[in-house]
Amino acid sequence: MTTAVPQPPAASQPPSAPRTLRVILNTDAKNEADDQFAIVHALLSETLDMRGLIAAHFGEHRSTTSMLDSRAEIDRLLDLMGREDVRVENGAAAALPDEATPVDSPGARLILEEAHRQDAGPLRIAFLGPLTDMASALLLDPTIARTDTTVIWIGGPGYDVREPGERCEFNLGNDIAAANVVFRSGMTIWQVPRTAYVMTSVGYAELEEKVAPCGALGRYLVDQLIEWNATWHQGPIEHRALGDSPAVGLMLNPLGGLFRTRPAPTFGVEGGLLPGTGGTVRVCEMYDGRYLLEDMFAKLRRAAA
């Protein structure tokens, strides 16, 4: 009689899931010199399905045509990368007039289009400047708050005691009304406040060693950063915080962030925190800078090769 040989149990198969993540990047690309690094990093990351870039305004502090300036910078980066395939839409040219009135734009319509898709998995929308276009989309169609959409915002102050005389955080200050619309909406929000995003500094020496040799794109990234510092920064400096890059990191590797869930605030006219209306926000208090920056540097080298 033949004795049956026990067989090992069949290996369980992992659940099927999309191998890429749908993302939109909303960027005030010509405001400073760090959006450029975040845009390039996102476009060089194969697991991110870039559904579109939206050109955002950055107030009138430095330009009266800030949204169009952002659009021109996005187009320049895409040209350097040879990425004519990427969809680009213009966002609002200015902040919301109040918390009830949207500023309609092709960028807001792109958000609505992608948020309502039922066939492609979750959507992450990273905002590297003000929340104008997200707030406008919510005011045009509040039902998107119930879709599988996550807002990742680089902006707002830290949640601990503020130092005397601390200025309103820049991205928040460019549209406080929009921030209040989004934070009251019930959307899923991951916030990277100023206390966290400033912890992503790189020095000129490191940029010259790791980024500048990466073709015309690498040289441009470094030169425009040094030029921005020379134009706008008073005093000696040889570094810059790539403060928008944590948004890309959170899309690539959300476990790299140290989060704390807090009551979602509203924001006063001076940019301070006020009690909210009962929702919550996931606040990223720190991000893994080693992974974030080295991943970007490696992808730039790979693309140049």
What is the element layout, followed by pairings?
Blueprint: E1 21-27, H1 35-43, E2 48-55, H2 66-81, E3 88-90, H3 106-115, E4 123-127, H4 132-140, E5 149-154, H5 170-173, H6 176-183, E6 188-192, H7 194-197, E7 201-203, H8 204-210, H9 215-232, E8 239-241, H10 245-252, E9 257-263, E10 266-267, E11 273-274, E12 280-287, H11 289-304
Give a brief description.
This protein has 305 residues and is of the alpha/beta class. The chain has helices at 35-43, 66-81, 106-115, 132-140, 170-173, 176-183, 194-197, 204-210, 215-232, 245-252, 289-304, and strands at residues 21-27, 48-55, 88-90, 123-127, 149-154, 188-192, 201-203, 239-241, 257-263, 266-267, 273-274, 280-287. One of its GO terms (molecular function) is purine nucleosidase activity.
Structural description of this entry:
The protein has helices at residues 35-43, 66-81, 106-115, 132-140, 170-173, 176-183, 194-197, 204-210, 215-232, 245-252, 289-304, and strands at 21-27, 48-55, 88-90, 123-127, 149-154, 188-192, 201-203, 239-241, 257-263, 266-267, 273-274, 280-287. It has a single domain, classed as Ribonucleoside hydrolase-like (Inosine-uridine Nucleoside N-ribohydrolase, Chain A, Alpha-Beta Complex), CATH 3.90.245.10. The protein is globular, with a radius of gyration of 21 Å. The mean pLDDT is 94. Helix 1 (35-43) runs parallel beside helix 10 (245-252), helix 4 crosses helix 6 and helix 10 (245-252) crosses helix 11 (289-304). With 305 residues, it is of the alpha/beta class.
